[in-house]
Amino acid sequence: xxxxxxxxxxxxxxxxxxxxxxxxxxxxxxxxxxxxxxxxxxxxxxxxxxxxxxxxxxxxxxxxxxxxxxxxxxxxxxxxxxxxxxxxxxxxxxxxxxxxxxxxxxxxxxxxxxxxxxxxxxxxxxxxxxxxxxxxxxxxxxxxxxxxxxxxxxxxxxxxxxxxxxxxxxxxxxxxxxxxxxxxxxxxxxxxxxxxxxxxxxxxxxxxxxxxxxxxxxxxxxxxxxxxxxxxxxxxxxxxxxxxxxxxxxxxxxxxxxxxxxxxxxxxxxxxxxxxxxxxxxxxxxxxxxxxxxxxxxxxxxxxxxxxxxxxxxxxxxxxxxxxxxxxxxxxxxxxxxxxxxxxxxxxxxxxxxxxxxxxxxxxxxxxxxxxxxxxxxxxxxxxxxxxxxxxxxxxxxxxxxxxxxxxxxxxxxxxxxxxxxx
Length: 423
What we know:
Blueprint: H1 33-39, H2 43-52, H3 55-70, H4 74-77, E1 98-101, E2 104-118, E3 123-135, E4 137-147, E5 151-159, H5 179-215, H6 217-232, H7 235-244, H8 252-266, H9 269-282, H10 286-293, H11 298-306, H12 311-334, H13 346-351, H14 356-361, H15 369-422
Antiparallel strand pairs: 1-2, 2-3, 4-5
Helix pairs in contact: 3-15, 5-6, 5-8, 5-9, 5-12, 7-8, 10-11, 12-15
C-alpha cells in the first residue's frame, strides 16, 4: 500500500485545520424539527403536550376557564342586579324561551305571566299568556350595578322585555329574586374561595413540607407529629367549631376571608406530606448535591431545583384540593355557619332550600347544586389527568434510571468476557 500521508519535516510546526463555520453543539445528533420540539421542550411544554392528548381533561379545562372568565363580568352577564326583587312574582317557575309565535319567527321571546292563588295548596299558579309574546332585549340598559364595587354601570347582556314582564329563566325565590342572576353572583364567591383557600394551604404545605423533607431529623419529627394530630380530627366538626367562633359582629366580607383562611389552614397537611416524601428522595440526587457544593442556600435549592422536579404533582394536588374547598364552603353556608347574606354564594342559595316542603313545591330552588356538581367533576377530571401526567413523568424518570443501570451491567458483563478471553 502507498502511504498517502504528507511528510512533515522533524521539528517543523504541525498544521491545523480550523473550520470557519459557526459552532453547533447539536451537529452530531441531528434530529427532525418535530422531534426537536419534544427533545428541547421545557417541563411546562411537556406537561402541555401530554395534557392536550386527553380530551376529557381538555373539555374540563375549557369549562373551568369559561366559568372563571365569567366571574370577571358577572354584573354584565346577569339580567338582574344581585338584590333586585319583583314581589309580584314570588316563586315563579322557570320560563321557556320561544322562537316562533303562531308560525312566525320573531326571535327569542317569552310570554307574559298570569297567576292565580291556589287556596288548596297555598301557592301561586303561573300560566303563560300565549297571545302576548314579549321579545328579550340584548345589550340593553337594566338594573344599575357597580362593576366589582368600583365603576357604576347598567348595561347587561340580556334584559327583561319591559318593566312589567319578568324574565326568570331559572325561576325566582321567595322574595321574587331571579335565580339565574343569584347563581352567577354566587359563582364569583364560591369559585374564588377555592382559589384563595388553596393558595393559603399551598404556602403552608410547600414551606413546612419542604423544611421537613430537606432537613429531616427533629424538624421532620416535629412537623409529622403536628400533621398527625390535625389529620386525626374530623374535618367537618373542626370546620363547624372554627366557623362558629367567628364574631357575629364581623361584616360579611370579613366572614368571607375568615372562612377562606379556615379552609386553607386545615387542608395543608396532605400537600405537606407529599412534598416531604418527594424531597426526601430528591435531596440525595446529584444535581442537589452539586447545588450544595456550589454554596446554594437551602431556600434556593428547595424552590429553584427541587420543586420544579415535581411541579406536575403539585398542580394535580391543587386541582384536586379546590373542589374540596368549594364543597367545604357550600356545606358551612348550607348549615348557616359560613357566608352570610347579603353576600351570595352557592351554599347561601342552597340554605334557602332546606325546607323539604318548599323544595317539593318549588324544585327549581335546588338548581344551585348543578354548578357545584359541574365544577367538582371538572376539577376532578383535570386533577386526574395532571396526576396521571406526574405519575408518567416519575415512571419515565425511573425508567431512565433503570435503563442506565442496565447499560452499566451490560458493559461490566462485556468487560468480564473480554478479560476471560485474554486469560
